[in-house]
Amino acid sequence: MSYQLELRHFKYFLAVADELHYRRAAEKLFISQPGLSRQIKQMEEILDTQLFVRNKKKVELTVAGQYLKGEIEFIINHLEMTTKQLKRIDQGEHGEVRIGFLGSAMQNVIPKLLVKLKDRFPKIKTSLDELSNNAQVSSLLKDKLDLGFVRLSRVPEPLESKVVYEDTFSVVLPESFPILTRNFTGVEILREKDFILFSQEYSPLYYDTIMSICEDAGFTPKISHKSVHAHTIFKLVENNLGIAIVPTSLQSGFLMRVKFIELKNIPQRAILSAVWKKDNRNPALQNCLDLLLNK
């Protein structure tokens, strides 16, 4: 019976699923609330499945409704992407690649990729969105992104990943910190200092790697602050509120009163991986991957 479903049903369902409120959803769609209720009831009858639990106080998605919401989001996003691609092809362009990234990828990998794309495929357009690891994975799975740059040790099965950059780590200290690079013997001399880290939720692999660097030096770091932005971390270090360990490439592009001491003699490396959906059919993505992976 699914042949009776129409695109409008999907859009009406998503509006109610997002708002969990029929009046607000109806206003968002510019239709009457009774009309919207009829459309949702019709959709449930066609599917022979209850999608919402409704009472006078609240509206909630059923388990089936939650599943359908994720699937319809994927379908709508893919349709929107396809429509945009068609317009670009019709205008003589060669498509768009939607890229998500962590801030550190902008220091090296992404600028080089964009220059290569401009040189080899000048009609491919790109859009950039700075997102956390988890947000990128979610967007890739929902077809909201074509390509991501993450620091993750593994990704879900529908995705494929490839290491694209290995970086050393550096200690970040206030400019006035009383030690010179040539006198720095190892992280163990910082055991009594407060540490400022990227949030564990933002990048679990980075967080665990920093912990292992300190544990190899014989101590567990005292964490005073966490952030998701390098600029914030450097500002805290600059104001003597702690020290940090970050990928060395992050020292570029920030004019702040901090100094970096590269940790060359440790085994840990900051690993950046490209990640994409295996069955992504965007032809522009393949051109992008060819340039990225065939260095």
UniProtKB/TrEMBL annotation:
PROSITE patterns: HTH_LYSR. One of its GO terms (cellular component) is protein-DNA complex. GO terms for molecular function: DNA binding; DNA-binding transcription factor activity. It holds the Pfam family LysR_substrate. Residues 5-62 form the HTH lysR-type domain. Belongs to the LysR transcriptional regulatory family. SUPFAM superfamilies: Periplasmic binding protein-like II, Winged helix' DNA-binding domain. It comes from the Bacteria. InterPro entries: LysR_HTH_N, LysR_subst-bd, WH-like_DNA-bd_sf, WH_DNA-bd_sf. This is DNA-binding transcriptional LysR family regulator. Coiled coil: none annotated. Keywords: DNA-binding, Transcription, Transcription regulation. It comes from Saonia flava. PANTHER family: HTH-TYPE TRANSCRIPTIONAL REGULATOR CYNR, TRANSCRIPTIONAL DUAL REGULATOR HCAR-RELATED. Signal peptide: none annotated.
